[in-house]
């Protein structure tokens, strides 16, 4: 698996948006707004490609402060889940964050994904809340 950073508004970025839509939004009957997309200009976009250079997973890192990154839109394609791709993308994100001087990673996890993040050392902060119509928990990890 090759996990690389892709630039905003490139064909590779467009592929990640399609995958995020398929895995995260379409099942909820939701779409991305133009405003939401425009804000991603300043984000870090990671893409996981298999050996045939097919996109299998992706995520987004948003700068919250000069010390804190927010991990968002973590998605692995349906037939590639539970093969270690999600874990590898989170680890790569943490490595990138540390090299760039960030000290903490935060995220809003769907309740179904909380155990996945706990295995990677993240802990919940506070109670359940609703986002995109489903239960979420705020989670964080000091890097
Ligand atoms: C959640 C998701 C990102 C995990 O990625 P993945 O590539 O499937 O997970 P991995 O194979 O790297 O799993 C790593 C470990 O977490 C476990 N795990 C993965 N998803 C899990 C889940 N939903 N519940 C419990 N454990 C989970 C795996 O079994 C594995 O455990 P192990 O190390 O003991 O074998 C992926 O399944 C996905 O895209 N799901 C749908 C979208 C989603 O929920 N995204 C997260 C939004 S916050």
Describe this structure in words.
- With 143 residues, the chain is α+β, with helices and mostly antiparallel strands.
- It has 4 helices and 8 strands; from the N terminus they run βααβββαβαβββ.
- The protein has a single domain, classed as Gcn5-related N-acetyltransferase (GNAT) (Aminopeptidase), CATH 3.40.630.30.
- Strands 1, 2, 3, 4, 5, 6, 7 and 8 form an 8-stranded mixed beta sheet that branches.
- The chain binds coenzyme A.
- Coenzyme A (COA) binds next to helix 1, strand 4, helix 3, strand 5 and helix 4.
Quickly list its features.
8-stranded mixed beta sheet, 8 strands, binds coenzyme A
Radius of gyration: 14 Å
Name given to the CATH homologous superfamily = Gcn5-related N-acetyltransferase (GNAT)
CATH class designation? Alpha Beta
| Uncertain segments | none
The rough form would be described as: globular
User: What portion of residues belong to β-strands?
Assistant: 25-35%
Classification by helices and strands: alpha+beta
Number of helices: 4
What is the number of domains? Answer: 1
| Major beta sheet summary | 8 strands, mixed
The span between the termini is 23 Å
Number of strands: 8
Arithmetic mean of pLDDT: 97
The proportion of residues forming helix, as a percent range, comes to 25-40%
The CATH topology turns out to be Aminopeptidase
């Amino acid at each position: 698996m090759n996990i690389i950073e892709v630039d905003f508004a490139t064909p590779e970025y467009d592929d990640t948006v399609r995958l995020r839509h398929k895995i995260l939004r379409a099942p909820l009957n939701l779409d991305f707004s133009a405003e939401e997309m425009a804000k991603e200009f300043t984000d870090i976009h990671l893409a996981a490609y298999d050996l045939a250079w097919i996109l299998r997973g992706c995520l987004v890192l948003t700068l919250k402060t000069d010390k804190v990154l927010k991990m968002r839109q973590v998605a692995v394609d349906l037939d590639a889940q539970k093969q270690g791709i999600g874990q590898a993308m989170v680890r790569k994100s943490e490595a990138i964050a540390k090299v760039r001087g960030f000290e903490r990673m935060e995220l809003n996890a769907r309740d179904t994904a909380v155990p996945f993040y706990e295995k990677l050392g993240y802990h919940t902060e506070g109670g359940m809340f609703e986002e995109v119509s489903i239960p979420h928990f705020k989670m964080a990890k000091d890097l």
